[in-house]
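Archive record:
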Amino acid sequence: MCLFILFSVLSGCDRSDDISSLSGESGNNKEAVIPVSVAMYSAESLDPYTTKNMTNRNIISLCYPGLFTLDSSWTAVPFLAEEFSFSGNMITISISGQAFFSDGSPVTAADCVSSFDKAKEDSSVFSSRFSYIQSYSAVSEKQFLVEFSTVSANNVNLLDIPIVKSETDGSVGAGAYVLKLSPSSDGSDGFSLYPNVYFLLKDISSAEKIDIIKYETQEEMLYAFNYGSVHAMYADISLGKEKYRGNTELSSFTTNNFVFAYINPTSRFFSNRAEVSRGITYAINRSEIASDVFGGEVSAVWFPFNPAWEKTVLAQLNDDIYSEDLARTSFYNARLYVNNGVLEWFGEPVKIRIIVNNDSFSKVEVAMKIAEQLNEFGFDAIVETLPWEKYLVAVEEGNYDIYIAEIKMPPNMDVFSVESALGVEFSPEMKEAVVLFNEGKIDMLEFMSVFSSEMPFIPLYYTKGALALNRSVKGLFAPSENNLFFNIDEWRVEP
């Protein structure tokens, strides 16, 4: 197989209104270069391993790619890697002979070892991945071996860790751009991005320079973007798009931030926890929540997987399972009976307390909506908003009936990560189903059959992010959670 890379990094098919086309000749006439600028959050550095702010990680993705990158369907695509093969829980990766750092030196397995060492440190945003990455080593100059703690082909998704050159200050990457100091007009230190002449995709079109403009707050960034001082920035659209005005285009994508509900198995009303969880799952109108609370800018789910993930799409699961009849049947099976419109448990009204962290306005609104919907079924549900520390204490002490939580699902979509977040153990049947699914021995529909019978937690939605673009740079940037500026969907393999 020959790999033909149709790759557009900071480029587009129709370049008639693309400002990067103003970087050189147009016919026989020279045109002035219009500077391209992106926002940076000044409170954090551009360290590829410790930076958490998504605005800054956008910039990092231009300079420090990994062995693999993830496309919009959360599928691993070789980047600095050329090919790879699995053997049980081990993967052997061959590094591309065309992979060079910005100083012209080749990317080696020793650089991968050094980079993984940095990524493994406690301060790294990638440190949690090393609960899956058991060991790693250089087999030869161009072969890198990774051993995982589990057997799963999905584990390759964990390997988009940035690779930087070893024995340097960490500033030398192999991306499309090189980060350099560029004094600003007021004399302070600033940064700019310049094309990497050694980038393995040599035929890409790119801006000659991208200015990085620092801002202290999200509000300052938004103001600068709306008035044209910044051409691209990460957009928080969870509360709507109306904040982004003028000549704006928002390219949205589903993140891996997963919000779910958990019911207290020790609550006297929930003695049949699985049946009650099923009833609540049917009773929650997720489409209504997505529309009323988020203006449609979340991906509602009743299953635990990212709906944009290739395997979820291929499974063709129903979009929604809201059903008043099925909800009432499940509540009845759990001995929650309706009496004059009131849901009772052995004659006692079912009063439940939903707790949520008050730091998250959107999740508070979600909790209120869920309480409203459950009350329509006869519950007496109230919402209590708690500061983070008190929320954690209430969860630990079991002082709740339902709580709303959010986790970042790992790129390998391992449902055991939810088990860890809950601090409880799945049943043996559920554990077996997760293992078999991860190993590819059962498909998603078979997994969901077990999940629906067990209902260890109640999926609600995955959040969305977006890349906000000034339309003058349409086609110049492309969105995806892990590499916002890389249009990797235009890769393809041909025989």
Observations:
- The first strand starts at residue 2 and ends at 5.
- The chain has a mean pLDDT of 85.
- The two ends are 5 Å apart (CA to CA).
- The first helix runs from residue 54 to 63.
